[in-house]
Amino acid sequence: MEQKSPFYSRPQSEGRIYFIETFGCQMNVRDSETAAGLLETLGFYRGTDKENADLILFNTCCVRDHAEKRVFGNIGALKELKDENPNLIIGVFGCMMQQQEVAEKLYKRFPFVDIVFGTNLLSRLPAFVESAESGSRTLAVDEQNIQIEDDLPSIRTGKINAFVNINYGCDNFCTYCIVPYVRGRERSREMAAIAEEAKTLVDEGYSEITLLGQNVNSYGKDLKDASFAKLLALISKVEGLERIRFMTSHPKDLTDEMIDAMASLSNVCHHVHLPMQSGSNEILKQMNRKYTRELYLKIVEKLHAAMPDVELTTDIIVGFPGETEEDFLQTLDLVERVGFASAFTFKYSPRKGTRAATMEEQVPDIVKRERLHRLNELQEQKSRENNEKYIGVTGIVHIEDCDTRHDPVCYGKFPNFKMVYFAGTPDLVGSYVPVQITNVRKNSLFGRIAETEETSI
Ligand code: 5AD
Ligand code: SF4
């Protein structure tokens, strides 16, 4: 089954070049695809580096870490390019710029930046660029009206997988999280519009999509007669769609109906990204997560019972305010019990404006660091154990790419998200190939193309 994405067929071009650097999550990647679509309608072409660009856009994130420091550092470094090429247009947008105070600070500190705007004003990018071309600077933040339009042009960057937004924003207000403040209230797209987009993507050559939302499981709560399970059922009927992925799932909204849909619809992939955040009931309460470790384990059990090949990945925060050694041991215990395929692990970092940032009993950084280290060691061991069960297993890999600098090595994923490496040739990219696992390393599975189409997962 040969599948080529449109990414390959776009002509190489001359003319004005744009370069977009994206920080943060898949939602930001998708927004950058929209920014690219808007720029291409203005006649810009995609470039591969900042040095040769006529327009540089930074799509920022403010969810964790010292994002602000890093972004300010990166922007500062662009001054040299602007000095060399005064016609260079520089723009900064994204979640971080959705915060008025931060956007103003950046706008003042870097007079060579032409455009600063919040994500919700993405549709106005062409007008901002036109102003910059005529010599005026723009600072545009609208914290109130968080609206993102659906039908904007976009240029997909995924070679074999296309991101599809299903709901925007978040209503959960986990106490550590800035997202509800910068992405606004939850809004679901209509089921029919999503199905239509999926059909168009198939026509364009994609056979795998990832449905995106901060919390896909609460999709449809603002619509009539819609739910995530119903959406999966509808999308799964799109002819030519071989694989449907989704992220992220909030445990409190993961219903039996949705597990049944996942298990019974043959093109819905058996992978759930299910952030647990903490294994301590007290910390989960302080985080406003609205589930307990017992409920989390129950969901995990149900998922395994319905889909023996399901893989789970997760997000975990260590050092949330008030987290004791005892609480942390509960987190390690839950990680031990669940056996995640992989985990994104973070030190808690206070976000201005969130409830947790003002909580007393902030945990010292040295303690956070030490806990993160212990957690990562345990997860590494669990990932290795998880990998070992794949020796001898054959599954279908959707080939993402082939690295010709090495053997050549092709890679792609099993339906359940496990990444597989094997010897193959670049012409295989985009196709579905049975691969049998022969050996495993810490983070990866290695195999060879199998003779048979018979698969065990
Ligand atoms: N500090 C650390 N990690 C955070 N995350 C969100 N906010 C914070 C924060 N303030 C993590 C959560 C979430 C993931 C996307 O980022 O684990 O699931
Ligand atoms: Fe943030 Fe919680 Fe919403 Fe996820 S569910 S985006 S962690 S508030």
What is the general shape?
Answer: globular
Uncertain segments: 1-13
**Main sheet, how many strands, which sense, barrel?**
6 strands, parallel
N/C terminus separation? 19 Å
Residue share in helices? 25-40%
Remind me, CATH topology of the largest domain? Answer: Rossmann fold
CATH class wording of the largest domain? Alpha Beta
Query: What's the arrangement of strands in the largest beta sheet?
Result: 2-1-3-4-5-6
Distinct compounds present? 5'-deoxyadenosine, iron/sulfur cluster
- How large is the share of residues in beta strands? 15-25%
Gross CATH architecture of the largest domain: 3-Layer(aba) Sandwich
What is the typical, i.e. mean, pLDDT?
A: 92
Give the number of DSSP strands.
19
Q: Specify the number of helices.
A: 13
Structural class: alpha/beta
Please, how many domains?
4
Question: Can you give a write-up of this model?
Answer:
It is a single chain. This protein is α/β, with parallel strands linked by helices and 457 residues long. The chain has four domains: 3-140, Methylthiotransferase, N-terminal domain (Rossmann fold, 3-Layer(aba) Sandwich); 160-269, 2-Layer Sandwich (Transcription Regulator spoIIAA), CATH 3.30.750.210; 279-388, Transcription Regulator spoIIAA (2-Layer Sandwich), CATH 3.30.750; 394-449. It contains 13 helices and 19 strands. The strands form five sheets. The protein has a six-stranded parallel beta sheet with strand order 2-1-3-4-5-6, with helices on both faces. Helix 4 (100-109) links the parallel strand 4 (89-94) and strand 5. Helix 8 (228-236) runs parallel beside helix 9 (256-264) and helix 12 (325-338) runs parallel beside helix 13 (365-388). The longest helix is centred in the last third of the chain and has 24 residues, at 365-388. The two termini are 19 Å apart. 5'-deoxyadenosine is lined by residues 63-64, 176-177, 275, 277, 315, 317, 346, 348-349, 351. Residues 170, 172-174, 177, 179-180, 214-215, 250 line the site of iron/sulfur cluster (SF4).
